[in-house]
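Course assignment 3, question 2. Fill in each field.
Student: A.L.
Task: Predict the tertiary structure for the chain below.
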Amino acid sequence: MSIATTRIMAVPRAPLMAILFAALAQGGCAGFSKDGGFDPVAAQTRARLNQEVRWTRTGEEEAKSGAQVAALLTHELSVDDAVQIALLNNRELQASFEDLGISEAALVQSGRLPNPRFTFRHAGAGPQYDIEETLTFNVLSLFTAPYAHDIEKHRFAETQSAVLIEVVKLADETRQAYFAAVAARESVRYLEQVKAAAETGAELARRMVAAGNWTVIDQAREQNFYADAAQRLTRAEWSAESTRQKLLRLLGLSQEGAALLLAESLPELPRNAAALPDVDQSVLQDRIDLRLRRTRIDELAHDLKLTKATRFVNVLDMGPARVLQGTQSQPYEQGYEISVEIPLFDGGGPRVRKAQAVYAQAVDRFAQAAVDARAEIRTAYAAYRATFDVARRQRDEVVPTAKLIAAQDLLRYNASLISIFDLLADARSQIASVDAAIQSARDFWIAKSDLDTALIGSASP
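Answer field:
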């Protein structure tokens, strides 16, 4: 009988029982956690998004999430309600949580030694036999397991950060889809008024031409404006349905018969724009994607140590042996067997060089990612400020001016100073300015969501 070990130096005469006890101790220390590594993800979600997220691994948890989603759908949804539904109900997000289970399984596996292997060889001719029994055991893993386990710990932490990034990404996409859907529905209502005014103008123009009071070209102008208003309304209705379907998809709701009680209008603009946050602090402390990259560097550092430790001797088997050669009445020969890889053609240099290059590559990419993150935050803030200024100006200057003109024109029309067509034209202009204000507000809230996401972490580290 022989016991074999691979991938690290060992003392051939080490007692067998000591090796077995060490193996049992090493294998017994690895186990699955109760939360599967999800609790830190949930805690970070509450801290960064002020939202709840749940990994529905049981029927009870799924029922709880379903009841919470159903309760939120009974009233008018705010943007926070929409994000909460997505975090509880989006199946793609639930699928990403399974990465935690996959990674934890690899972590637990790294803490357990390979099972021993028994080999039996029997050959004979007449009364002569050649019997060899071998029990192989990977003693090398007793030495390499701590390195491998540390590597898997870092990979598990990477997975937790990657899952958290998926949560942040879904929240950002849901916010943007919500603002787009609300703005599209609001635009439809105003463009319906534009179409109605244009239709009235076109009908009046037709009657004026029939009465001989207008030229055909004047009628054509009104008819053309009506056709343009009808097309704009059609595009707005298509946009409203498209944005609604996208929001439903992100919320994980069925497309058939799903009723969403969205807000009638977008939220009011804030009184003042927020100041640019401390970019260096946001990048160095708060960005999840950079934290993931730092964990990756730590993992590669441990991998480099393991590669260097096993550079020359990568395979080493050893153990006691029992061999019978002769008749069955003869005693077994007792001894031990050693199998070692001789680094004659490969001294491990390429493996070490590769590990060093991969590590250096990760360090360089982290440094560039920090530069990119700073630029991303500043770019997002520039968009946030620009859209805020445009939306505020549209709300505080353009729309009030259009309303004032419309009110004055109504007085002039009542005094017979302008025609009904002039009045309709100014009414259409006022409605169009309101629609432009809606789009400006939508752009601001989307830009704010982009900025919030940039401060937390990029969606594609």
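Instructor remarks: The domain at 16-456 is CATH 1.20.1600.10 (Outer membrane efflux proteins (OEP)). Residues 1-16 have pLDDT under 50 and may be disordered.
Grade: pending
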